[in-house]
Amino acid sequence: MRQIDRNLIIDTVAELCIKANTELGEDLVEAIKRAKEVEESEVGKEILDIILQNIEIAKNEQLPACQDCGTAVVFVEIGQELWFPFNLTEAIYEGVRKGYKEGYLRKSICDPITRKNTKDNTPPIIHYEFVPGDKLKITVAPKGGGSENMSEAKVLAPAAGIEGIKDFVVDRVNRSQANPCPPIVVGVGIGGNFEYSAYLAKKALLRNIGDRHPDPFYADVERDLLERINKLGIGPQGLGGRITCLDVFVEVAPCHVASLPVAVNINCHVARHKSKTL
User: What's the rounded Cα separation, in Å, for the pair 236 and 42?
Assistant: First the structure.
């Protein structure tokens, strides 16, 4: 059995919180550059150019790419040969506290009723998965409130089928309009049950722009949804144009014969996630 030092986990989570907020992935940057080339709206082109400038400044000056530094969502893959003589969850909490303090990141987590701020952006949302081996993979994906507010889960009738799923996804985006700060990235979870479909939709957002589902059927669903969403004409920042969405990712799980759970998790153009394996 292998043991990983608690302080290494704390420091890693802190580092990922800061980097995720300040250094957006090259896949996203390249996608926005391609979007600028095909955008037909002059206002849309200008907005995309400003977004690219903002991303560059954030990286060079180590500043948040968005003032909303989000809920810290942490995905943890735990090798089955690892042993922790301490509370792993508390170590992750401490890493979030450290990262949001040292990175001067906005702390937005509060009591749902009193709205009293926790002042350190904890607790994070943590998803654990056990995998073979003796490695620990940590992914931090800060999720902003504006795009999260435009997300939705629904249990459709099985007869709705794939076309019903597509209609639900496109309608959700259409009702969102400018609210999630387009161009957006859309995660779709199909199957499982009510809560698991939402988890699948969130997990889908960890993929890089352009990564297609390994099943050709669902890869085609992703392409079709992307095309249909971009025909809505919402455009960059909702001011009209050809590019409303940069990509759509679908994740799927088996479900009960009597139901068809579907969830849509929308991400703004600041689609943040950083990973590290220990």
Answer: 11
pLDDT in tens, 109-150: 999 999 999 999 999 999 999 999 999 999 999 999 999 999
DSSP string of 184-233, one letter each residue: EEEEEEEEE-HHHHHHHHHHHTTSPTTPPPSSHHHHHHHHHHHHHHHTS-
For residue 175, what are the CA distances in angstroms to 56, 74, 149, 168, 266?
31, 28, 12, 10, 12
For the CA atoms of 186, 222, 192, 158, what is the dihedral angle to 10 degrees?
Answer: 120
A 10 A CB-CB count for 261 gives 22
Taking the C-alpha atoms of residue 266 and residue 275, their distance in angstroms, rounded to an integer, is 20
pLDDT tens across 71-97, in order? 999 999 999 999 999 999 999 999 999
pTM: 0.95
